[in-house]
Amino acid sequence: MDDYWQGDGFSLTVKDITDNENSTAENSDLHLPPINPIIPVKPEISIMCMKCEEEIKVRHLKEHQEFHNALEMFRFTMERKPSSVKQLIKRRRAIMRRLNETASSENPVSMKKLQKLNLAYELLKADIEGTNTTLRNVDEFVHIQPNIQGHGTTLHCALAFGVCQHANSRWKTSMEDRAGFFSIYDGYYGSMAAEKCARYLCEVLEKKVENIYHTSLKHENINAEIVTAFNDAFEEMDRILLYGVEEQSRNRWSGCSALTCVLRGNNLYVANAGNIRAVLCRGDGSIERLSNNHSPWNKKERHRIRKAKGDVSKSEKTALVNGVVKSTRGLGNHGDPNLKASVIRTPVVNCLTLEDTDQFLILASNGVWEVFSEEEVILLLEDIIPDIDVKAIVKRMQERASALEVGLPVPKWDEIPRRSKGCGSF
């Protein structure tokens, strides 16, 4: 199978190597440097715990965090764990005695609090008795031998990645492109909406942005025009989804959250409709969130939904619109008129001028942010950018947050902390 891409900046044919194991770069239209086969690695990564600074496997992170919470509930620490079940029972009785002393007939101890206490007790008890298998280092993954060619990577969760650039000098004598487009589409109730957006939204937005820059060389309020272009592009894309071409969802038509970024020079434009998040790591150690939280947890979004006669159902762990989706904005959803009235397509657009000290931009869907904090996501980049000391970044982020809490001057640094020369890099 052949895949073909063509554009101003490149023209490339990629051969599917699964059809022929002996396929090489010689079969391509481009003369690329030789590509080394990927080194098989275990599909697993580790992350530093923000509390104890231990390296924890990602699949154990949730249980490890629950263990920290259990220790805190019983007034223990990782350095001072309960040494016996007898000591743990004694501490539990003391906590129950304190709860009963503060309770009354009008305000009794809640069942939810008792349940959390019992779960924490069982978790600590299992750790003392050695029966807590979730915290053990159990190698349950099968080693994978991928038949993939590409640049090798130390990121354990990725099999391979590749980089290719071509000036396309046959059709373009000079390369003047200074723009980039990045996007994520998180679909639900079928994949059609997300796939259509990934295919067409870039083209729709490109035409509208090009019109802005081609109509006049001078723009007094370019940001306002870009915001209008994003709004019009999302509206037109939603009309394309209304036709329902290739829609296969039975109960209701598919929908998706969408986040798009346009980078032109040092100007960054981020538009999101949904619960996908974009964060920027700045040079002063701060994390700037560039997207809005379009979920039922947002008070303004809840008010808008109820005004549109929609319903928001909440529990301790989740919140849903009409009992169906977690996002209050997005594209698609045309098969359910009631849901469509509540989940609107209008994006929120943020405009930002990047500085030389800004480090990197992270785009990730809601599934990532439900598990990891923003600091933990940065720690996950350790294998991707090995020449940058991401742990030092997170440490300085914590120092900055602590300084803000007590009203001290915010610490800054002029350059990003990097590893010693002995560490590998791309």
Automatic annotation (TrEMBL):
The family this protein is said to belong to: Belongs to the PP2C family.
Entry-linked Pfam families: PP2C
GO molecular function: protein serine/threonine phosphatase activity
Domain PPM-type phosphatase: residue ranges: 160-426
Species assigned in the record: Desmophyllum pertusum
SUPFAM superfamilies: PP2C-like
UniProt protein name: Protein phosphatase 2C-like domain-containing protein 1
InterPro entries reported for this sequence: PP2C, PPM-type-like_dom_sf, PPM-type_phosphatase-like_dom
